[in-house]
Each structure stands twice: as C-alpha cells, then as structure tokens.
Protein 1
Amino acid sequence: MFEGAKIKHQKTALLIAGVLSSLGFAPVYALPLSFLGFLFAFMICDESSGYKHSALTGYIFGFGFYAAGFYWASNALLVDIKTFGFLYPIALLGLGAFFGLFFILPFMVWHAFKNAGVWEKVFGFASTFVLMEYVRSFLLTGFPWNMMGTMFGFSDVLFQTASVVGTYGLSFILLVLTGALYGLCQKQYKSAMAVAISVLTVMSVFGVWRIRSYNDGASALKVRLVQPSIAQSVKWDEQLLEENLETYIAMSRKNGVDGVKFVVWGETATAFDPRFSAYHRELIKRAVPQNGYLMTGLLRYDEQKDELYNSMSVIDDKGQTVAFYDKNHLVPFGEYIPFRKFLPDWIKPVANQISDFSRGEKYKTFELMGLPKFGALICYEVIFEDEVINRSNKPQFLVVVSNDGWYGTSSGPYQHLLSARFRAVEEGVTIVRSANNGISAVIDPLGQILGRIGLNEKGSIDVLLPEVMSVSTVYAKLGGKSIQYVMLFVLVCLFLKNKLKKRQ
C-alpha cells in the first residue's frame, strides 16, 4: 500500500501533483493526470496527523492546481510589459496562493471522515468542493473559471448532463469518478466499478438521446462574425484607431453582405461611437447589411450621468444606435479598482492606467424588428453559471462580444469558449460569440459549434443560426442554486451519520 511518509519531498510532490491535475482542463483534457493527481493528494491526506496537516496538504495541492490552471491570466500584464511586467511573478504566484485556499476545507472534510468508509470520504469531499466552487463564484465579485465539471468538455455526449445538473453538478460527478479510482485502491472493487460504470452509462445514454432528439436544421437567419485579431499592444494606438476601424469595415463587407442579417464585432471593437460623430457614423454604417444590424463592442459615454460603460451597441443600416447593453459584471483590477482611494501611493500610477467603468443593467432582452429575441453579454460575463439570461423573458439567442487578445496563445481563450458552450447547454440557448482575437463561434443549444474562427486567425465567417435556437432544460427550470442545496444536504447527512456511528 502507498506510504506518503516515505516520500522525501512530500510538499514538492503535492505541488507537482496539483500542476499536473490542472491539465485535465481545456484544451489538453488529460483527465488521467487529473485523476491521478487527486488520488495522490487523497492518499497523502489519509496519513495526515490532524486537521492542520490535512489543510496544508489541500493548500499546497490547490496552489499548484490553480497557479497552473490560471497562468494565462498573468499574460495580460505582458501587453504593456514596461508598466506592468514587474507584477507578472506576483500575479502568477498570487493566483495560486489565493485560490489554493478553496482546497483547504474539502481536504479537512476528507480528514474528518478518516475513520469512515470510502464513500463517506468521497461524497463528503465532493460536496464540500462544489460548495467551495460556488463560494468562488461570488466572493470578491467572483471568478468561477475552470470548474471541475468543465473537464467533461472533451465530449459533446457527456457534457449534455449539464442541461440537468449544471456545471456544479458535473463537478460533483467528476469528483465521484475520481473517488471511484480511490475506491479501487482501497480494494472496494465492486462498489467502485458499479459507481463508475453506472454514472458513465447514464451520462452517455442521456447525452446520445438529447443530441438525437434535437432538430439540428438551419434557419434562414445568417450572422457574420468578424475577427481581425488586432494585437492588443496596438489596438488603442491613437495613430492606428482609424486604420483598425477600416479593417473591421473591410472585413465586414468582404464578399458582400447579401443575405446577412447582422454582423458582430468584438468587445471594444471601435473607439468611435457613431452617436457623437457624423463622419464615423457614415463609415460604420457601411458595415451594416441592408435592413440589418451591426452589433459591436465600444465604450459608451452617458453624458447625463457623466459615466463610462463597456458596452455593446446595436446599430442599424442608417448608422443609428437602436439599442445597447452595458456590461454589468465588471472585472476587478481590469475595469475598475476596488477601494481605489485607499491604495498606497506607490501603486497609484499603475492603478491610474486602469479604466473605471460604471455598471450596467443585468439580464437585458432585446426585441428588434426582423430578429428573434436576444440577450447580450460582454467577455467574461459568460463564465457565471446561472447569471446569463432573463429566464422570465427568455431570449432565443445570446450575443457575446469578447476579446481574448490579452492572453496570447494560451489555454485561456479555449477555456473561455468552453464556458460559453456550457452556458448554451445549461440554458438551452444559441450563443453567437465574436472576439477581436480569441475564438469566435456560433454555438447551438447542445453546445455544438456550428462555425468558428480559430485563435489568432484573422477573418470573417457567415453562419446560419439553428432553426431551433432555444430549448427547455431542467437546469433552467430549477435554477443553478438548487445543486448547492443538494450538496449542503448531502454534507449534513454525512456528518450526522458519522456522529451517530461514533456514539454507538
């Protein structure tokens, strides 16, 4: 049997195991490494002398897991390396140091069930882990990136289960499967095999049924996605702003716009708001199809409120702004600085480089002539499970404008696209995603990609939206928080059972 005490550099081994476990996420999907990494951490925790040691085990493992899983976020500091480059190692280590804290409680719960059965440990750990993922989704405005359940993203069939239990539910399932591997190591052969085979069989049968029952025909509604892949370092160069706009317009008109109903540009695609410039209004309307629309990210200034918004404007073929959506969920330290006035003097020159946007209205549904009802999201808003659409006035599709140019050639853009695919499956809605750079795509309600422009590719693509743009899902009816109540109920039951067993 495994003896962690014989490992000379146990902490280093845990750190490496955490790093390797993060390779289960997109685009690598090395699930065997993830399973083995967690198995190693479980076995180290089995030998913990107390809660302090188990907490340290979880933290070190979690440090490696999140430092490697979130490394791409630090790349944003390299766009302006002279100003922000010195923060790169701080950000890289800080991500692991902070998010590693979310591993502590699950491993302490594992230790709490040290003398219980295998499945008490597994279900206790998995329930606590999912609850911690939920806390991570809202604490300090939240960052629910790389939930464990997204590791199922490699299979269109398996991740259909998200339409019932959401990504949090898939996180629980994945950890139970990891626990089945632990059960095999503990010689619980029958129960471990039964759990693994049953879970995968149910997920597979349901996924195949859902895919086959969907009418995947195309409608006559054609969208054009434009991705110019303008480097982030020159995107806001004052001498190139006009040229960048011309690039967008030329790519929007390439091969004509006959049959195209609307064109979508990425987040903050243009620095020019056509409301304030007749010249730019005439330019921009060249990109709009006749009797159609252009949906573009831009910075919207509200003169009455004297406030600036990160927005998506809908512009008609006359160059008039007929609707807009202002980003609601802002990125801390990216789009605003929390407690800006309390910052020390040495950091203020850096902080002043960051915009201070205002928050817009949440869950906006648009109803425009010639288009089905649609909603809008900007960039990372799509990662927030249960927070993407107005369910009382459900849109047929979502337009997501984004820009992953900050993160270079890394795992970040692939994981960002996967988040959009999961929201499509959970809510049963079509998603139209356009990025300045990243991966632009049209995604059907099953999370399947109907057309895409790859990372770092420059081009435009026309895609027909699906005939059935929206379907009903169990997840949307029950709401995403329901799985958290189930996790809490499971955890309470396990602790009560364990307490009663000790009294006997």
Protein 2
Amino acid sequence: MTTQELFDLTADDIVTRIQTSVGLTKFAHRRAKFEGWLKVELIDILVRSGQNALPEIERIDVSFDTVGIELKTVNTNIRYPNVINTTRPITKNINGVNEDIENLRGTNFIDKFVVFIVFPITHDNLNWQVHLGHITNGLENYLYRQFNFGDNIPGVIYYGQVV
C-alpha cells in the first residue's frame, strides 16, 4: 500500500468525522489530545472499507494485512481564536512522533505509516514548518490535508510512509 492509497482510503472520512464532532471541538478548544478516538475511528473506517483492521498488533496502534500504522495527536501552543492559551510541550510531541517512526522500523510490517493530527495549526505556519522538518526527515514521503474543527479551529492531518 502507498501513502496515497492510505490517504485516499481514509482521509476524507477522518476529516469529516472531525469536522462534525462537537466533542472534538471541545478537545481542540482545550488543546486536549484524542489519540484513542483517532484509533477507534480509523479502525472503523478501514473495516467498513473491507480491511481486517485490528488494534495493538506488535504494539502498533492499527494494522491490517501487511500494513502497520502508528497514530499521534500533536497539540501546539500557538495562539488561535477560540482556543485557550496555554503551554504545550511541542518538542516532546515531535519526539513522540519520531519514536513511533522508530518503533515501526523495528516491526515486520511491509508497509509502515505514521498518521498524526496537529492542532491548532495551519500547515504553512513558519514555526510549525521547523518542527515538521524534524519529523519528515524520517519519512519517505508525506501527504497532508488542512481542516477546521468547529469554531474555525485549524488542524492538519499528516500521513507519512516510514522507510
């Protein structure tokens, strides 16, 4: 499976579910992570598309066939309207994504991906681009899609293929 195939299979549905979830808007407003929600929703989308997706095989968040996917939600401390101002350990979050990339490298899956949602942020934010570079160095390629939670809180979902 390619990054584009996984993106095409799941991104629209994940973004739609995020945009229509009042509960996730509350999480985004408080800069609270929601990785467990993402895992459940991704498995639901994959199973509905005919995949035998399962959680926690080889300690990887989601897998099916020869595909292993690690998930993360990354909360930033960048100020946005409708989001409480607070500090968040962005460097620790970036390190967590990179640790997931390393964990995937040590597995027997053939196709390895990291999927992470960053919020509140826009892809072109210059501060974010510096952090993103620390992640994408460990990826063969990546795709992204910008979206908004409710209350116009910006977010980006990234799909990266691990080499």
Protein 3
Amino acid sequence: MIARLVNFFGEKRHSRRRWKLFLKLLVLIVIADFLVPRPHVDYFWQAIPGWAAIFGFISCAAIIFISKFIGHSGGIMRDEDYYD
C-alpha cells in the first residue's frame, strides 16, 4: 500500500493523474468554502469565501521570495565550493 502511494507521488508517469486529483480537490475545497456559514466574523474580509486560502498563498509566496532575495543578495548563500 505504501509502495503504491510512494510510486504515485514519485513517478513521472503519474503526473497527469496527480494534476487532475489536485484540481478536483481544489475545486471541492472552494465549493465547501462557500457552504460554510460565518455568523461571527471580526473583520469584513473574513466573510469573503476563499479569503484564508488567498491570504495563505500570498503569505507563503512572499516568504519564499523574500527568503530567496535575502539569501542571494544579502550574501547568506555561498557556492558549494566556498571553503575549497
């Protein structure tokens, strides 16, 4: 069972099936987000369906890009043969 799961996520031949599964899951989550009642929200944007997903994606992308910028421009990253 675990070997089949590892092969499904690791092999190139399953890439099309993985994308279809991902897109179906994404659509299901977006539909479910419209069905969730939000009777008590603190801010108006919390009542917008999909707000948490959008905010999470933008935050994650910002962390990645800022980290890459700091690593490359700030001199934190070094070449593999830096100490040779």
